[in-house]
Amino acid sequence: MAVARLNFLSIDEESLVHSKSIDCLENIGILVRSPKILQMLGEHGADIDESKMIARLPEDMVKEAVKKAPKRIKMCSRDGRHDLELPVDGVPYVGTNGIGTYMTDLETGKKRTTTRKDIADFARLTDALDGMDFFWANVTAYDVPESLHMVHALWTALNNCTKNYGGLTLSPNDARAQIELASLIAGGEEELRKRPLFHTLCCVVAPLSFERGAVEGQAELAKAGIPIVSMSMSLGGMSAPVTLAGTIVNANAENLASLVITQCASPGAPHIYCAESTIADMNTGGFSYSTVEYALISAAAGQMAKRYGLPAYTGSWGVGGERPGFVLSFTQALWISISMLASTDMAAGAGQIEDAKGGSLEQLLLDSYLWENYRGVLRKHLVNEETIDLELVREVGQGNTFLTHPHTAKNFKNQIFFPDRRKMKWEATLSDGMILEAREEVKRILRDHEVEPIDPDILRKGNEMLRGYEKNLPH
Question: What share of the chain is helix, strand, coil (3-state, %, to 5)?
Fold first, then answer.
């Protein structure tokens, strides 16, 4: 099958990135701020410097981790109709982005802080949109205790969206609480292991550093069979070398280190290679998804993931700028779209503005509609004797038309992509003129769309568990 894909690195360059990543892990090592995880790594062959909390990972450890990691992963949905098989065979899966610190109000358009109700609205809208394959809570719920942000986000998401959920973990206790709540819906921990209803992003702190709470939570989730996403957010010139090559090696080394941790904690646990890495904006020191460097680093990371046979989460989708609408330049939008050609199986980003600092329900709708049209570029095409069909050419003959031949009438619908022209009218760059129409569409969906409900007894038990978690928080 022919599928549009962008390769940035040559085979020799792939090999160099790999060898330098191994050199980095063996001789520089990773900072692990958890005595428990350091001990585990030491027991599996790492060279541990306890005083500096550094683990140096020999090449054999990395090879063994790559060997043990499953090459196919299934991430499941609550209703069984939206299960995700990785790696993809064609069009990547796309979902929302996460944990923005504000959103634009659906009524006033003004920025405001966010609550569980807002996560529920984003979840229900995601459930309704054909362009969205999984959900990550776009915003943070500030009406719950800070240490339970991720637990409440998961429970709210599972109540309001049937699609697979992408969470985060803050600690092993946080991880256990998420496992317990998801197990209620799955029918027990063993059923959750068979059909994981959520995956977890375990972010490496660039360069080459793992925080205690998050990495211990990662180990706990790996033992429960929850797919781990080792998100490297290397920022060239800030938390990685300013060169593309240096940033790529840093992101690759961080992914391999995270994979080693997952496989030491639970051999055979599902693990997804992930990079949201770019070069720092030298004017602000900030992170931007709409740069050419992001697209190229994503392409390189996708290649490296495929080299190791790992599912890849290395692109980004969502063209929100500083406010809702398509307010980026044509070139910036093109750079974002290129990242989706980068051998990825999954990509997040829909529904966010200001490089994921905030969320917008209208933007989620627009990003989803845009993706429905764009994904025609990434569909599979069969190239063989039958589709080339020189006998058909012989039959039609030189200087004649194929339009009236029965072959065209029979096949044009499965060969040509037909974008939704109504949705394409909303795609003007440097414009927010479509926002009012999108706002009304969002309101209609939130009013009319019904999410398959959770059993009332399970809902009651989950709510009781949440109250118990809150009651046991240290005061």
Answer: 45, 15, 40
